Amino acid sequence: MNILITGASGFFGWHIASTLTAQHNKVFSIAHRNSPVIKDVQWIPHDLRYSEGVDKIFEAVQPDVVIHTAAMTSVKECDTNRKDAMIVNIKSTERIAELCDRGNVYLIYASTDLVFDGTRGNYSEEDPTNPVSFYARTKRVAEEVVQSFTTNHTIVRFALLYGSPSPHSRSFLGWMGDGFRNNEPVTLFTDQFRTPLYVKDAVYLIEKLIEQKDTPPRINLIHAGGPERLSRVDIGRIYCGVFGFSDSLIQEIKMEEKGEVVNDAADVSLVIEKARTFLNFNPKTVREGLEDMKKYM
Ligand SMILES: NC(=O)c1ccc[n+]([C@@H]2O[C@H](COP(=O)([O-])OP(=O)(O)OC[C@H]3O[C@@H](n4cnc5c(N)ncnc54)[C@H](OP(=O)(O)O)[C@@H]3O)[C@@H](O)[C@H]2O)c1
């Protein structure tokens, strides 16, 4: 199968590309600033701010599946550079969805739990969205773009992802781990809740979607989170337990105490029953995920 991945130099895309090449697929990736070496991945340099040329990439690759993970992902950067955030996160998605529709290519779009405002938590696929940050707004609009441009798609709303770093990007564990390793205080919220998902489980979900791509009915929207609703402090404590750091370094604060506007939602925990039922999705707890990560360090 020919698989085109956008953003394979990023944290999530790198894990996807590394796994899918191991399964004898032909994997192509659109690279922008970085193109880390992944055995058997063919890199195609392209800046997605420019939609011209994407059609040529489709022609050359003839993809059966496109996994669109490339995005401006920094909430801060999206806020300060709104124009680029709109172009990269929305416009490029529009072009990709349009080309997928034209070639009847299956499109998997990586969206986010942050499309919800976080006032309630435990969100299912049926709940109304209401993104808080500009980043999350671009991701929600991109979902709408995918929905309106092609029927042959699945939008996956991933929860906070964690796992081993990729060569050029790492999950939130990166800065947290740096703090503990340097014996510095690590400030974590007591009142911000997520359903963290181990990146290998997120990749498993992608694999299942690809496997079922020709089996109706098409799942157009699905939530993918871990099995537990945890605060940032809970996550920090589990991390310390697994990696042998003292959790006395954790400084607990509430979001409102941060001293700057936290442009983030409080509780975007996801309900994952649909993924459990239709994709046999049984993700690891954070302790299990971190224990697995530790084996490969
Ligand atoms: N990480 C999470 O916790 C999480 C949770 C939910 C959803 N998601 C979604 O999952 C996707 C991947 O997230 P991530 O954490 O892996 O992000 P990341 O590490 O920041 O990677 C982003 C990727 O997008 C590429 N990119 C950015 N601007 C580009 C441009 N102009 N042209 C071409 N490529 C461009 C980057 O390429 P270069 O580095 O080469 O510039 C990089 O490969 C995103 O869509 C994000 O919204 C992530």
Summarize the structure.
The chain has 297 residues and is of the alpha/beta class.
Description of the structure:
By secondary structure, this protein is an alpha/beta fold. The protein contains ten helices and 13 strands. Strand 1, helix 1 and strand 2 form a beta-alpha-beta unit. The model has no long low-confidence stretch (mean pLDDT 95).
Task: Name the features.
single chain; 297 residues; alpha/beta; Rossmann fold; seven-stranded parallel beta sheet; two-stranded parallel sheet; 13 strands; binds NADP nicotinamide-adenine-dinucleotide phosphate
SSE inventory with pairings:
Elements: E1 2-6, H1 11-22, E2 26-31, E3 41-45, H2 54-61, E4 65-68, H3 75-80, H4 82-103, E5 106-112, H5 134-149, E6 153-158, E7 161-162, H6 173-181, E8 186-189, E9 193-194, E10 197-198, H7 199-211, E11 221-224, E12 230-231, H8 232-243, E13 250-253, H9 273-279, H10 286-295
Parallel strand pairs: 1-2, 1-4, 2-3, 4-5, 5-6, 6-11, 7-10, 8-13
Antiparallel strand pairs: 9-12
Helix pairs in contact: 1-7, 4-5, 8-10
Number of alpha- plus pi-helical segments = 10
In N-to-C order, the SSE pattern is EHEEHEHHEHEEHEEEHEEHEHH
The CATH class name reads: Alpha Beta
Overall, the morphology is globular
Small-molecule components bound? NADP nicotinamide-adenine-dinucleotide phosphate
Structural class: alpha/beta
The CATH homologous superfamily name equals NAD(P)-binding Rossmann-like Domain
